[in-house]
Every structure is written in C-alpha cells, then in structure tokens.
C-alpha cells in the first residue's frame, strides 16, 4: 500500500533500531462519502416547492477548492450501504460541486421584509401551492380554530425573523422540529432557505450546518438502508483517506489523548509482567501500539514478551490498503527494531461476532483489553435483544484481564429521542468544527476533505438513521460505568503520570482545550463542551 504521508516516530531510543518507523495513518471517525451532483443551481432556484421524493438526493458537498456552497442535486440509486464501521461496498466516481451563492439573509417568500401583508400573501401561496382545489380552507379553519391559526402565524413570523437575521443554529433546529412533527410544508420551506445559509467552505457553523442539513434531508426522504441508496457515495483512494485521517490526528488531540491515556493505563498495569497479551477490539492500522511498544522496550529489567490480537472486520481493509497481515508486519518490524519479543494474531471478524475461541487465550499471559472509540458501534438492548454491547463486556470479564481501557465520545446519541439527539449532535460537533477552524486556515484546501471524509458521515448517520442503521451510538461515561459495573468490573483509576503526560501533549495545541480529572477518569473538551472521556477497569 502506498501511503500519501509518512510519519516518523519520535524518540525511538533505548534499544530501538536507528531507522525511523513509518506510522500507519488511520485515526478517524468513520468516513463520509462524496455525492454525485447533476442538477444546476439555476434549476434549483426555480423550484419553490419540493416533494418528499425529490428531497432524497439533495446533499451537501463541495470540491476541495473551498469555493462552493450547498445546493440540491439529483443522484442515481446506489448499492452503497453503511457498514458497522462506515466503510463502503462500492465506489462511484467523485464529482465536482457547483455554487449556489445566495445571501444568508434573503427570504424566499418576499424581498420586502417590512411588508407583513405581502409576506402573508406569499406565505399563503407557498402553503397552498398552485392547486387550490387540494385544500379546503374552511375545513382547516374549523379544525384548527382561531387560536391555533394565530399560533401558527406567530411561529411562521418567528421563523422568518430567524432567517432574516441569519440565525443558522435556530433555523436548523426549527427544521429538525418540523421534520419530527412531519410538517412537510414548513420543512420544505426551511430547507429552501437553509441551502442559502450553509456552506462547507464558510464559518464552522455553516460547514457543520451543511452536513446536518444533509442528514435532515435524508431523514425526511426515507429511513434505514434506503437512506444509503439515496446518497451516491464514494470514499477517496485509500492513500488519500489515510492522509485525511492522519491530518485530523495531527491537528486535533482527540485521538492522541485517547491512545496515550489508554496506553498509560496498560503500561502501569503491566509493569511487572513478563508476558503481555493485548486484545484490541478495533485495531485499524495498529498505530496506537507503536508508542506502547517503544515505551515497554525501555522498561527496567528488559521488555516483556508482547502478543497483540487485532480484531477488525474485512470492510476496514480498504482504508488500511490491505488485510490485517499488513498491521502485523508493521508492528513486527517495529518490535524487532526495539528488540521486543513480539507476536501478532489477526482476527478478521466484526467485534459484534467475537466469541471466546476467536481470542486464543494462553496460560501465563497477563491480559489487557482495549476499547478505543469502538464500543459505541455495538448495538445494545435498545436496538437488539442480543445486546452485543453488554455481551462483549461479559465475555471480556470472563478472561480475567488485568486492565480494560475505554475511550469514547462524551455524548448521548444512543437512546436520546430525535430532537434531543439533534440538539446534542449540533452542540457536540460545533465544538469539533470550531477546534478544526483554529487549527487549519479556512482557505486550507484539505480542510473540506478532512471534515467530509472523517466527520460528516457520522453526523448524517446520527441524524438520519434509526434502528440497526444508526451505528453511531455514543453514550455518556456515566452510562458506560453502569455497564462495566453490571458486568463485574471495578474502576482502575488512571495514574497522575498519565494526567501529566496528557497535559504536556495539550501544550502543543490551542489553550481552548480543557482537561479534567474526575473520579479516576480523564475528560478532554473544547471550551465548555466535553468531547472525549477515557477510563480504565479491572
């Protein structure tokens, strides 16, 4: 596999080889897919009413030039589908994206925002459409009553005010509320206006709004697996995807925080062990273990014998550029250069399907289990009676591990109803997009690609999907604690050394990042929004 970037491992000393090590580059939320755009912006502006059937292919993407804004498109049916880790099963060609470029504060109902009577007449036209015979206004008046009609008029006036002042956050939430209430007319009208307000090359809220709008459109158009068919999707070439993932890893500390805190807990628990077996339930590129192998190589008295069981299903091979054998080869070369006895066991299976016989436990090994950014993909009791989320914890407990590490997004997108989930997603990813905006210049040509391929699919999945199709199911650490305790685990507080290491790491980033230690766990945040939590169990 050709990698678009090479990351030289720093500080490989004390027994490690002199040659630099290429770090496999894969650190991301699951990737988003590009969309095939065919309709012109002129055709779009001419449309004043949309049907639910026409909404399905309206997606929000732009080219890496960073000059376009959101506009609706027609897309062809696709056989693509969301897998549990977000990898595609087909790869249509990427398309360029065109501009729509309408002012943020422009209303599609009226150019004269001071003339309320004119606005109401235009509003009546939007609500009734051209076919007045389809509506019985007298029946509607009798059914709603004067008080409810007055309330509806006030709501519409409030929405027009939101649009006129460019309050994108409030308009997005109003649109989500209309979708939740199955209010087709309001939804379509708000989406027409939102397309003028969002842009993947604009302010952080505009960029986030573009992907949130895509999720709302997909939710309105269909549900479950049919959402995937409505979006014509493609990942970039694997080398490009790895490059985007690596850039996200470097510009934001979320994944470094998670990996370093987990590795610190494992190193502490294994300080006196001679044989160590690490079970990684989502090994990806194996990049987390590079620094741990280097650290254990310098251990007083010599390094332990290390065996890693890497679990990952075959759909991850695309981003990896090959099978799990590649991970084993890379880590084996590193371990050899560090003079660390090493063995890699590949378990090419989905984590939800793992059974005891897939792990190959050996007598005399001290076991460490790693759950880094993966348990939220496991369906729980709210989705399936099989409840793989708790089943995995019970299986791991039966192994009697010395330490189990957990790193997860600190949010609730699992059991929260749609509107609270929407509000939480908007708040959570607003902080993520703000942090990227500080790290990369807005005109940076790769920023759009990073957000599109590493973040946007996750946003769309959270908003658009329900049931088994919604695979991005975060939980708050308080809920994870309940699950671990019910499975028989007790907390393994992270040491002060781990806390100090993370503080040193954050010195290289914006001062707006926050670190909090609470009840033996570490919380990484951006300003007032906690984003990632890390803890350990035994």
TrEMBL record:
Residues 1-33, 61-93 are annotated as: Disordered. Pfam families: GRAS (PF03514). One of its GO terms (cellular component) is nucleus. It is found in: Nucleus. Keywords: Nucleus, Transcription, Transcription regulation. The keyword Phosphoprotein does not apply. InterPro entries: TF_GRAS. Coiled coil: none annotated. PROSITE patterns: GRAS. Residues 464-538 are annotated as: SAW. Its main location: nucleus. Residues 326-358 are annotated as: Leucine repeat II (LRII). Residues 245-310 are annotated as: VHIID. Residues 166-226 are annotated as: Leucine repeat I (LRI). A motif (VHIID) lies at residues 276-280. Belongs to the GRAS family. This is Scarecrow-like protein 21 isoform X2.
């Amino acid at each position: 596999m050709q990698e678009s970037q090479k990351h030289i491992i720093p500080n490989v000393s004390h027994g490690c080889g002199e040659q630099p090590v290429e770090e496999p580059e894969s650190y991301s939320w699951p990737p988003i897919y590009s969309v095939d755009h065919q309709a012109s912006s002129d055709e779009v502006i001419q449309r004043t009413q949309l049907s639910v059937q026409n909404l399905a292919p309206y997606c929000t993407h732009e080219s890496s030039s960073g000059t376009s804004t959101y506009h609706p498109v027609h897309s062809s049916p696709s056989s693509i589908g969301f897998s549990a880790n977000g990898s595609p099963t087909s790869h249509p060609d990427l398309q360029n994206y065109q501009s729509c470029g309408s002012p943020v504060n422009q209303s599609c109902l009226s150019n004269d925002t001071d003339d309320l009577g004119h606005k109401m007449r235009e509003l009546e036209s939007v609500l009734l459409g051209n076919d007045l015979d389809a509506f019985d206004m007298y029946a509607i008046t009798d059914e709603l009553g004067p008080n409810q009609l007055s309330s509806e008029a006030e709501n519409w006036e409030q929405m027009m005010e939101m649009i006129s002042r460019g309050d994108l956050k409030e308009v997005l939430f109003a649109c989500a509320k209309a979708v939740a209430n199955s209010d087709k007319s309001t939804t379509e009208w708000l989406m027409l206006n939102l397309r003028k307000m969002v842009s993947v090359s604009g302010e952080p809220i505009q960029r986030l709004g573009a992907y949130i709008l895509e999720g709302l459109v997909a939710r309105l158009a269909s549900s479950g697996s049919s959402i995937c068919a409505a979006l014509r999707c493609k990942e970039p070439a694997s080398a490009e995807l790895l490059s985007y993932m690596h850039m996200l890893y470097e510009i934001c500390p979320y994944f470094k925080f998670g990996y370093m805190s987990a590795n610190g807990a494992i190193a502490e628990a294994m300080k006196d062990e001679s044989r160590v077996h690490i079970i990684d339930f989502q090994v990806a590129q194996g990049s987390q273990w590079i620094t741990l192998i280097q650290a254990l190589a310098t251990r007083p008295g010599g390094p332990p014998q290390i065996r890693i069981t890497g679990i990952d299903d075959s759909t991850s091979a695309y981003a990896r550029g090959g099978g799990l054998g590649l991970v084993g080869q890379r880590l084996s070369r590193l371990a050899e250069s560090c003079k660390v006895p090493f063995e890699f066991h590949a378990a090419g299976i989905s984590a939800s399907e793992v059974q005891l016989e897939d792990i190959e436990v050996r007598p005399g090994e001290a076991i460490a289990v790693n759950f880094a950014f993966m348990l939220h993909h496991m369906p729980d009791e709210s989705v399936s009676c099989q409840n793989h989320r708790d089943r995995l914890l019970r299986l791991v407990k039966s192994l009697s591990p010395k330490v189990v590490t957990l790193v997860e997004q600190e949010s609730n997108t699992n059991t929260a109803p749609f509107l609270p989930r929407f509000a939480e997603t908007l708040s959570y990813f607003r902080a993520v997009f703000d942090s990227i905006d500080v790290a990369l210049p807005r005109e940076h040509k790769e920023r759009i690609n990073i957000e599109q391929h590493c973040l946007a699919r996750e946003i769309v999945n959270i908003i658009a999907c329900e049931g088994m199709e919604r695979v991005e199911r975060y939980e708050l650490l308080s809920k994870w604690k309940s699950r671990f305790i019910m499975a028989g685990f007790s907390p393994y507080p992270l040491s002060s050394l781990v806390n100090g290491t993370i503080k040193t790491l954050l010195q290289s980033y914006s001062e707006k990042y926050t670190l909090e230690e609470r009840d033996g766990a570490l919380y990484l945040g951006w300003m007032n929004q906690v984003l990632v939590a890390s803890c350990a169990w035994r």
